[in-house]
Design goal:
By secondary structure, the chain is an alpha/beta fold. Helices cover 40% and strands 20% of the residues. The strands form two sheets. The chain has a ten-stranded mixed β-sheet, sandwiched between helices. α7 links the parallel β8 and β9. α1 crosses α10 and α1 packs parallel to α12. Bound molecules: nicotinamide-adenine-dinucleotide (NAD). The site of nicotinamide-adenine-dinucleotide has 23 residues, from α4.
Length: 367
């Protein structure tokens, strides 16, 4: 069988720095676990603009459609802030999400015990936390028409429209139920059915899809209560499924439960390809961190944990995904920290490469 394929788009700022550590782990997987991934690399964001005058070349887009998975570093930076909106680095990222039709955005919020002190909540509320937010990514109020700003009776009016079709709600719900089946079989759907018609439809469709997943315990919650519950007792949740707008807010809220931006991976999944696996793009949640780019201070864990998600969801290599997550946990428990994880612990910060060294050593020790 052909090796699985991966298109690496390291991007800008700290993107290439954290991606270097990911590439070392991919080499380790080939050498030590006989898991060979065919890696191609290309440009995205400002790096692509510098060469092609566009943040994503058509040829790169075409390859992204063909490979088993895309792993993206980060895009953007002050140098590109002056560019026209149509060629800003972020447009490259949006084009990938749109043309690959990546409708389910997975944001895990997992609290590593060694970092529980970094959470904005009390340690016992977050210790052992492991929740997954599935956010619908390609529809809802960020895309709905009509939209715009116009003048009515001498005053300006801003308009956005929340619009969801049954199909859009259903395919995301299926992704969320499938994920719940692989976890603790609990799904909480969040909307505002009390005040929004789109919320009533959301609740109806999720309930209908539930008939195909009777083993999963389904609950419904108004999204505002969901926000409250996330900071009151986050461990009550396993998988949360919600719309684009609420998901944007709730996933950032959940992110703070775990401490640092440098630790947060994400995945965006689309429809199944011919091999049965979903179209997929994996990326750390953080941006290009221009304030520390080029200094060797970046935490590579978010990007490394994004690779772990790719192993699990695109390469059917759940065992290796868990091994990699455990290696990150081991290294943190050993007290190895990049600067972003140091505020409360003191001591000497590990560089990006030293963090990579420690994770590879922990992987090797796990054999
Ligand atoms: P950012 O995530 O780049 O940085 C926020 C803060 O967190 C900075 O102080 C940074 O040093 C720190 N940080 C982020 N990742 C880190 C890591 N791995 N290790 C250590 N510290 C880390 O967000 P920002 O400063 O708002 O944006 C910077 C640029 O990135 C902008 O051009 C923005 O548009 C872009 N951006 C891109 C993405 C993406 O590519 N998905 C996401 C967010 C922002």
């Amino acid at each position: 069988m052909a090796n699985p394929s991966l298109l690496i788009l390291a991007g800008d700022g700290i993107g290439p720095e954290v991606m270097s550590e990911v590439k070392r782990i991919i080499t380790w997987l080939g050498d030590k676990r006989d898991l060979h991934i065919d890696v191609e690399e290309d440009l995205v964001g400002g790096a692509a603009y510098d060469v092609h005058g566009t943040p994503l070349a058509d040829s790169t887009m075409a390859r992204a459609q063909e490979v088993d998975a895309v792993l993206l570093g980060a895009v953007g930076g002050p140098k590109y802030d002056v560019l026209d909106f149509s060629v800003k680095p972020e447009r490259g990222l949006l084009r990938l999400r749109k043309e690959m039709d990546l409708y389910a955005n997975l944001r895990p919020a997992q609290c590593f015990d060694a970092l529980a002190d970094f959470s904005s909540l009390k340690k016992d509320l977050v210790s052992g936390l492991d929740i997954l937010i599935v956010r619908e990514l390609t529809s809802g109020v960020y895309f709905g028409e009509p939209r715009g700003i116009h003048e009515e009776n001498g005053t300006r009016v801003g308009i956005n429209t929340q619009r969801y079709t049954e199909h859009e709600i259903e395919r995301g719900a299926r992704a969320a139920f499938e994920l719940a089946m692989k976890r603790d079989k609990k799904l909480c759907s969040m909307e505002k059915a009390n005040v929004m018609e789109s919320g009533i439809l959301w609740r109806d469709v999720v309930t209908e899809v539930h008939a195909d997943y009777p083993e999963v315990e389904l609950s419904h919650m108004y999204a505002d209560n969901g926000a409250m519950q996330l900071v009151r007792a986050p461990k009550q949740f396993d998988v949360i499924y919600t719309d684009n707008l609420f998901g944007d807010i709730l996933s950032d809220c959940a992110a703070m439960l775990t401490g640092s931006l440098g630790m947060l991976p994400s995945a965006s999944l689309g429809a199944p390809m011919a091999n049965g696996r979903p179209k997929a793009m994996y990326e750390p949640v953080h941006g290009s961190a221009p304030d520390i780019a080029g200094t060797g201070k970046a935490n590579p864990c978010a990007c490394i944990l994004s690779l772990a998600m790719a192993l699990r969801y695109s390469y059917d290599a759940g065992v290796e995904a868990t091994r990699l997550e455990n290696a990150v946990e081991t290294v943190l428990a050993q007290g190895v920290r990049t600067g972003d994880l140091m505020q409360k612990t003191g001591g000497k910060a590990a560089s990006t490469a030293e963090m990579g060294d420690a994770i590879i050593a922990a992987l090797t020790a796990s054999l």
